[in-house]
Write a structure and sequence with these properties.
Helices cover 45% and strands 14% of the residues. With 426 residues, it is an alpha/beta fold. It folds into 3 domains: 92 residues, Helicase, Ruva Protein, domain 3, CATH 1.10.8.60; 175 residues, P-loop containing nucleotide triphosphate hydrolases (Rossmann fold), CATH 3.40.50.300; 116 residues, Arc Repressor Mutant, subunit A. Strands 2-5-6-1-7 form a 5-stranded parallel beta sheet, sandwiched between helices. α9 runs parallel beside α11, α10 packs across α11 and α13 crosses α14. The chain is globular. The protein starts with 10 loop residues before the first helix and ends in an 18-residue tail after the last helix.
Length: 426
């Protein structure tokens, strides 16, 4: 438990507190401290069960930005105390990686003891593999490089970047490790809607692969992100302000961290330890400024028009406000309510169907992805980080009116309502 935080008395004290806030919130990097990791208990339990079951491996998959890497990094720290020692090796796959290059990275982190000229020394396993590494090589090395009291866990992150050949070789390796009941666990992490997009899903793999889907964070999990950090700073947040951060973040942990950090710093700038809605409003402005330049450019390209009656900005905001499933997908029907609110008049799918088509095209930067079959299409943002950004731009541009913001901040409401603001000027 952290020591109580002394009330800041000088400008230097407040500056130190602001610095501490920037350290415990992680909008741009995975969480790597167990005490600050929030939620994901279901996924965590499945990972632990996978590691404890010999011959079992896992695929951790979901949208980009939902916290897969954070879970992969900290789950060893959250592992229950057992007799055996968990040895975590994590590597990130690049676009040019092959099966051999990925496992050469892994082998560089595995040291073996050799005797040379009567002297024992440790060398990296990779030193013995100057050329190709095969699935059988991996199986043999994992069998003999660790003691019976050790459980090696090899995490391969960003695996969705790899080639079909690399995926095929990896599937073969996983099957071999399972068939030989090798005392090691491979966890493959990637962006996908299902494991078939990451690894060939054939019958022989199903029995040895635990499929762990990582959805967007629940409201309670997002609240936990904030509530785990504020006590360390000696700060508090009122209920409505916390709910506003949760709703604006749309289930994406990086935005919970970004808005939380910005709200904390806004309160500190005003020499307060209690975060209010005005601080969250300031956080929205700061978060827009801090958003990646690529997000800002893609948004500008998607809404650009020389005409005032095209409604690209309004339709895109309605898409961002639409109710989604746990994979971030929304139907055209889900856009009707938010767009009706934004425009102040009733709309039908026919009024914005062409906009959706253009949003999936190159002209609008392919800001949306379309899934499914005709008459049952669903859409989502190609970059999940775009969705909260668009909502915050709508809030800042007053396209979401004061009445909507009042309800947005109400803890009893699960989402933005379909209330009618004043018609947009565009």
């Amino acid at each position: 438990m952290s020591a109580p935080v002394a009330y800041p008395r000088t400008n230097e004290d407040w500056n130190v507190l602001s610095y501490e806030a920037s350290q415990i919130f992680s909008p741009s990097a995975p969480v790597d401290e167990a005490d600050l990791f929030a939620g994901r208990q279901t996924q965590l339990n499945k990972l632990i069960e996978t590691v404890l079951e010999k011959g079992k491996h896992a695929i951790l998959y979901g949208e980009r930005g939902v916290g897969k890497t954070s879970l992969a990094k900290v789950f060893r720290l959250l592992f229950p105390a057992i007799v055996k020692k968990v040895i975590l090796l994590r590597e990130q796959a690049d676009r040019d990686d092959t099966f051999t290059s990925i496992w050469r990275k892994v082998f560089k982190d595995i040291e073996v003891q050799i005797r040379e000229n009567g002297v024992e020394t440790k060398v990296a396993l990779a030193d013995f593999y100057e050329k190709e590494i095969t699935p059988d090589d991996v199986r043999r090395e994992l069998e003999r490089s660790f003691s019976l009291n050790e459980i090696p866990v090899i995490i391969i992150d960003e695996f969705d970047r790899t080639s079909p050949e690399t995926r095929k070789a990896t599937a073969s390796m996983v099957k071999d490790l399972s068939d030989y009941t090798v005392n090691a666990t491979v966890i493959i992490v990637g962006v996908a809607d299902d494991i078939g997009e990451i690894l060939d899903e054939h019958e022989s793999l199903r029995r040895c692969i635990e499929q762990i889907h990582m959805p967007r964070m629940s409201n309670d999990e997002m609240k936990e992100v904030i509530n785990k950090r504020l006590p360390r700073l000696g700060m508090k947040i009122d209920r409505d302000s916390l709910w506003k951060i949760v709703v604006l973040s749309r289930g994406l942990p990086s935005y919970v961290h970004l808005l939380g950090m910005c709200a904390v710093q806004a309160a500190i700038d005003n020499r307060r330890l209690n975060i209010t809605e005005s601080d969250v409003d300031s956080a929205v402005h700061r978060a827009i400024e801090k958003s990646r330049e690529s997000v800002q450019k893609e948004y500008a390209a998607a809404i650009h028009t020389n005409r005032e009656d095209t409604l690209f900005k309004e339709v895109l905001l309605a898409c961002a406000l639409a109710r989604t499933d746990d994979r971030g997908l929304f139907s055209p029907n889900a856009v009707i309510g938010p767009l009706t609110s934004i425009l102040g008049r009733d709309v039908k799918i026919a009024n914005f169907q062409n906009h959706l088509k253009k949003f999936i095209g190159a002209e609008r930067g392919k800001i949306l992805i379309r899934k499914g079959k005709e008459r049952a299409y669903k859409f989502r943002f190609r970059d999940p980080m775009m969705q909260p950004y668009i909502i915050m731009r709508g809030v800042e541009g007053k396209m979401v009116d004061a009445t909507s913001l009042d309800v947005l901040s109400s803890p009893e409401q699960p989402e933005l309502p379909n209330v009618r603001p004043q018609p947009s000027s565009q």
